[in-house]
Every structure is written in structure tokens, then in C-alpha cells.
Amino acid sequence: MKAIGVIRYSRRERLSREEFEELLRSAGYEVLAVLEQNREEHPRYNIGRGKLEELKELVKELRPDKVIFANRLTPSQAYNLWKELRVEIIDRWQLVLEIFEKRAHSKEAKLQVELASLQYEVPLVKEAIRRIKLGDRAGFKGMGEYQTRQYLKHVRYRMGKIREELERVRADREVKRKRREGLGFILIALAGYTNAGKSTLLNALAGEDIEAKNQMFTTLDTTTRRFKLGRKRVLLTDTVGFIDNLPPFIVEAFHSTLEEIVKADVVLLVLDISEPWGEVRRKLLASINVLRDLKALDKPIIVVMNKIDLTTAEDVEEKKKLIEEIVEEVAPSVRAVVKISAKMGILEELKRALEEIIPTLPKYKRFRIVIPPTVDPGKILGLLESIGEVLSVSYGDKVEVEALIQVGMIKELTRLGITLEHPSNKAD
Asked: Which amino acids does the record list as binding GTP (predicted)?
């Protein structure tokens, strides 16, 4: 498929030509040309009339299969452009959905992509009905008014069925999450801009070999794996990558997947630090905005500066200082900024940060634990190390332990015959 790209820059929208071209390539398009313009949005065509004439000439000359806008088009703008150019017109978010369709493998991911696509289609169908009434054009996908209305009814019905199926998936995932928490697992979510290296980091920490390519939106399916952090029980979940100005319909469609971030104990916000500072800053702020929209900015967050092997130590240190300044202002829940290379296995700073943060989580409380003589203290101490933090041990007729443990594990420990006393919010 051949395409001409169009990108309009303005003060209201942060757009990157490099990222737009990467999206086009990721969707499998041969890019014939990219037309650029600096101006505020034209209400009828998005771009100005003069640039539209230039685009017309390019379409006649190059004969693309599609013209693809980096900017979001209103349904009215899309129809006006089609009338002028007589070639299929799509915008940035339809392009993203095309990539999602290619990357979705699991049933859940396919349902989420279909829901997002249908949500995007609804205003287009409504615009078609409006224009049919005005006698402006034949209808949506060549259909008449009755067929278009029936199609809209079908779209809404299908959206309802998909939401029901995704709600069942969400409920099943919640049951699994509660079971993991009941076993004393710490839940850590990988978040961040697309192609920042989240899947590579999961592979490095968990010793897995999950597909990780240098392309946008490789991961659409939620993947959870266990990894060792001392003796603690830790689960790591990879999630769909973010992109600038992530639209509400995609956030809603992928709610069950993005919920893994909301429910996590710790969020690892992964950045590709090898990019120019302007891109690093843009993607950091875009990721923080998504976390804010998800209401996940109050969680303990570690900013993970990935791909340090692709730049210099001086560049990394300079960017770290700038990142720390930004997060201090807009994301105070960030507990650490660490440097890693997931590909090279340089993960020491990240592991140290996690070891320091985990015992301070709200789910941990301080207890005095009494282990009776009938119970093997070695077994209990090993369990306490896996679900908490042993602070002190004193041996006598009974073994007494001061420890930070997860509140959700109290019943399990009581069942083993030990006594817990004097809960306190204080921690070392």
C-alpha cells in the first residue's frame, strides 16, 4: 500500500514527523511523500486551501492508495477532503488502529481493537447520515440512508456485546489478581511510550523470550511473569505502549489491559534514553499524562532510563538531572530515576530501587511475630522474607520476630500457628 502523509504543526498539538513516519512504516505503508504545514486548524479541511491544492497535485502525480493525516480529523473534514481528493482519507488514530489490528493475537486484544475501531466509526456513520439528508453524497461505504442507519444500529449492538465479553475478562483477571495478592505477590506493571523497551526489560528480569522488536506497538496482549528479587514474590506485567494524545476511545477499549497499571503496587515507567532530549521529554510528559488519566499517578513510580548502552555516560547523567527536575514538578510520586540497559542486562540500579521501595508500600505493616516451639522457625523466617522484610530476630523459649509483612498474609500466618501482635505503621 502506498500513502502520502500530511502533518500540520500548531501550538496546540505536539507532533513529531519522525514518529509519524515510523507509524506509517509500522502499518506497512510505502511513504511516497510527507506534506508539512505550519498553521492553526482550518475548520473545513484541517490544512489550508493553498496546501490542499498542493496535495491535490501530489495525489494526481503519485497516485497513492491513501492520504494519511498525522492530525485528528473531524468526520466533516474527512468527507470534505475525500470530495476534493477522491482517495481514501484516514487520520493518525485510524492508522494506529490498523497497526493494532496487525499486532493483536489474543482474543482479548482482538476484542479491544474491534471495540476501539467501532467507537471511532460511530461519528463517521452519523456524519454520513447527516450528509445523506443534505443530498451531499451517497452514504457510508456507498450505502443509502436506510442501510446506513441499520449499520449504525448494528455497530452499537456489537459494541455492547464486546463490552460484555471484556467485562467477563476483566472479572476473571480480578479473581486471578486477588489470588496472587493472597499468595503474597508484589505486582509490578511496566508502562511507558511505545517502543521504549518494556518487553525487553520483562525478558531480562524474568528470563523469558517474549517477542520484542524495534517497532511500535509490538505488545498488545497483557503478559505477566514471575521474577526473583531476593526471596520476594514478585510478578511483572507488560502492558500496551502509550502514544502522545492517546484518545479516550482507545483508553476505554483497552481499559482491562491498562487496569493492570492501576492495580499494580509499583509502576516502572520506561523511557528510551538514547533519543534526543526533545523526544525524551515529549514522551515522558505524554506518559505522565496517560498515568494521570488512568488515576495512577499516586502510585510509587520508578522512572527507568533504558538503552543507556546506545549513548554516552555524560548524556545519560545530563538527561537524568533534567528528568528529575520534571518529575519533581509534575509527578511527585516518582520515587527514583534509574539507569539500565535491558538488552545488555544492566539492571542493578533498578533492582536496588525496588528492594528499597517494596517494604515501604502501604500493604506492608510492622508486626511482632511469635513463633511457638512446635513450628519450624526456619520455615517461617523463609516465608516472612518472601512476603515481607525481617527487621530483627530474638531466640529464646519462643522465637520472636519484628517484621514488615503484607496485611493480606495475616490469615495465612495465623493458620500456620504463629501469633502476630502490635501492628504499627512505623517502618525502618
From this structure: 192-199, 217-221, 238-241, 306-309, 341-343
Query: Given this model, what pLDDT does residue 425 score?
Result: 45
- Is 139 among the annotated ligand-binding positions? no
Q: Is 238 annotated as a binding residue?
A: yes
Q: Report pLDDT digits (tens) over 120-175.
A: 888 888 877 777 776 665 555 556 666 778 888 999 999 999 999 988 888 888 88
Whether 184 has a binding-site annotation, put simply, is no
* 112 and 87 co-located in one domain: no
Classify residue 238: in a domain, yes or no. yes
- Residue 369, beta-bridge partner list: 401, 420
The reply to whether 397 sits in an annotated binding site is no
Radius of gyration of the chain (CA): 26
User: By residue range, what is the domain housing residue 273?
Assistant: 184-360
Mean pLDDT, residues 195-210 taken together: 87
Would the annotation count 197 as a binding residue? yes
For residues 228 and 314, state if they share a domain: yes
Same domain, 138 and 263: no
Class of residue 33 by CB neighbours under 10 A (exposed 0-12, middle 13-18, buried 19+): middle
- Residue 199 annotated as binding site: yes
Does 71 carry a binding-site annotation?
no
The verdict on whether residue 360 carries a ligand-binding annotation is no
CA separation for the pair 67, 9 (Å, rounded) = 17
Quote the number of domains for the chain. 4
195 is in an annotated binding site: yes
Residues 190 and 47 in one domain: no
Provide the pairing of β-strand 301-306 with 334-339. parallel
Q: Which of 360, 383, 407 is the last residue of a domain?
A: 360
Structure confidence at residue 207 (pLDDT): 86
pLDDT surpassing 80 at residue 327:
yes
Is residue 342 part of an annotated ligand binding site?
yes
- The verdict on whether residue 417 carries a ligand-binding annotation is no
- The band of 376, judged by pLDDT with boundaries at 50, 70 and 90, is confident
Whole-model pTM?
A: 0.80
The answer on whether 193 is annotated among ligand-binding residues is yes
Q: Any known ligand binding at 217?
A: yes
pLDDT at 274 over 50: yes
Residues 188 and 322 in one domain: yes
CA neighbor of 248 nearest in space, from 291, 216, 293: 293
Tell me the angle at which helices 313-330 and 277-293 cross, rounded to the nearest 10 degrees: 30
Residues 46-83: tens digit of each pLDDT: 999 999 999 999 999 999 999 999 998 988 898 889 88
Q: Is 142 annotated as a binding residue?
A: no
* Cβ count within 10 A of residue 329: 8
